[in-house]
TrEMBL record:
NCBIfam families: ftsA (TIGR01174), PRK09472.1 (NF007009). This is Cell division protein FtsA. InterPro entries: ATPase_NBD (IPR043129), Cell_div_FtsA (IPR020823), FtsA/MreB (IPR050696), SHS2_FtsA (IPR003494). The gene is ftsA. Self-interacts. Interacts with FtsZ.
Length: 429
């Protein structure tokens, strides 16, 4: 990045969602937080449930959001960290075992054991996005977070593998590259959001984070400081909007406005004497409707969504381990009555969370909408601290090509067709 004095250490998070595209530019602060330099947001039309359905439209939205962020931050954006979600995401827990070569755990041992853990058969057309270490065991001693330098003979690792559909990820990469940007990494959205909204205590105690967006609801379960389970539910804010549009017989854009301004997720919280204007289809006059009648349309959909989340939590086997309860984030969690309804269904504490440890445009960013965008920055900075991700042991081990590698590949592609042919002849004749 250029054009700003401190642009060298700036990172950019790009959250390509179903309802909007958000680009956030930030740089690290001395105390481990993030200073936000610029935000750009633009409605998204080319995504559905986390998957690209229209490349042109998605490219346009990304360009607009990035241009807005560039203007605000006063720098040029060249590369971004991109969030990915959708029902094509799947995850599993895996383990690997290796012998410790020098009787003392070295970085290469950790690398080997993680490689051994990720050597699992995955479905055709899927690619590994993340290998997230949960804990290590040396000989008979388990529960080790950071094994580096410890003595032993046998090293074992438990990891959480996240895979995504190859073509879905390629389509997102294609959209970003058509905007003239490099992709630093593709990151699972609920992993990013959890970095922005969860506290260390919650991760330790056990928590279920639910990011309710426009097209998908993303879940991540943490216990003992490590991620244990991830899932994507293809029901979210868009379904609520569709329900309102159908029930009230109003166009979708008006239904969205009504949802944002007046909707309530719990019928008893909405006043029956409070009236709202509902625009009709065509040239028919607008109608009056009580806010309570609107809540009666919205509540069943939220109830269904939280029931699906609860079922997924039970299926994962971690329901009794999330003592810190449920943390809701994402744009669709902002509605009045959501936390009250969630507490009724989950029977555990529920809070609505905003991004933490941010400065700069903190007032703007302290909004559940920006959880994924800010989380992508947290991920990027953690990665740079851990030595570009692949060498990181305690944090996240990403399965991607870094910026430098991409740059090197581009240079090679440009200059070396002739050199490759020459080399082939040298090697073979």
């Amino acid at each position: 990045m250029a054009g700003s004095p401190n642009a060298s250490n700036m990172v950019v998070g790009l959250d390509i969602g179903t309802s909007k595209v958000v680009a956030i530019v930030g740089q690290p602060t001395d105390d481990g937080g993030i200073e936000i330099a610029g935000i750009g947001s633009h409605p998204s039309r080319g995504m559905k449930r986390g998957v690209v359905i229209n490349i042109e439209s998605t490219v346009l939205s990304i360009q607009r959001a990035v241009e807005e962020a560039e203007l605000m931050a006063g720098c040029d954006i060249h590369s971004v960290y991109v969030g990915v979600a959708g029902s094509h995401i799947s995850s599993m827990n895996s383990d690997g075992v290796v012998a410790i070569k020098e009787r003392e755990v070295t970085p290469s041992d950790i690398e080997r054991v993680i490689d051994s853990a990720r050597a699992r058969a995955i479905s055709e057309g899927q690619r590994v996005l993340h290998v997230l270490p949960q804990e290590f065991s040396i000989d008979t001693q388990g529960g080790i977070r950071e094994p580096l330098g410890m003595s032993g003979v046998r090293l074992e690792a438990q990891v959480h593998l996240v895979t995504a559909a190859q073509n879905a990820v390629q389509n997102i990469e294609k959209c970003v590259r058509r905007c003239g940007l490099d992709v630093d990494a593709i990151i699972l959205e609920q992993l990013a959001s959890s970095m922005a909204v969860l506290t260390e205590d919650e991760r330790e105690l056990g928590v279920c984070m639910v990011d309710i967006g426009g097209g998908t609801t993303d879940m991540a379960i943490f216990t003992e400081g490590a991620i244990r389970h991830t899932a994507v539910i293809p029901i979210a804010g868009d379904q609520v909007t569709n329900d309102i549009a159908m029930a009230l017989r109003t166009p979708t854009q008006h239904a969205e406005e009504i949802k944002v301004k007046y909707a309530c997720a719990l019928t008893q919280l909405a006043a029956s004497d409070e009236m709202i204007k509902v625009p009709s289809v065509g040239d028919r006059p607008a109608r009056d409707l009580s806010r309570q009648a609107l809540a009666e349309v919205v509540e069943p959909r939220y109830e269904e969504l939280f029931t699906l989340v609860r079922d997924e939590l039970r299926r994962s086997g971690y329901e009794d381990m999330v003592a810190a309860g449920v943390v809701l984030t994402g744009g669709t969690s902002r509605m009045e009555g959501v936390s009250e309804l969630a507490e009724e269904i989950f029977h555990m504490p529920v809070r609505i969370a905003c991004p933490q440890n941010v400065r700069g445009l903190a007032d703007v960013v302290r909004n559940p909408i920006y959880a994924t965008g800010v989380g992508l920055l947290h991920y990027a900075l953690q990665e740079t601290r851990h030595g570009q991700g692949l060498e990181s042991h305690g944090g996240v081990v990403a399965a991607h090509k870094g910026r430098n590698e991409l740059a090197r590949r581009d240079i090679k592609d440009g200059h070396s067709a002739l050199a490759r042919i020459k080399g082939w002849f040298k090697g073979n004749f």
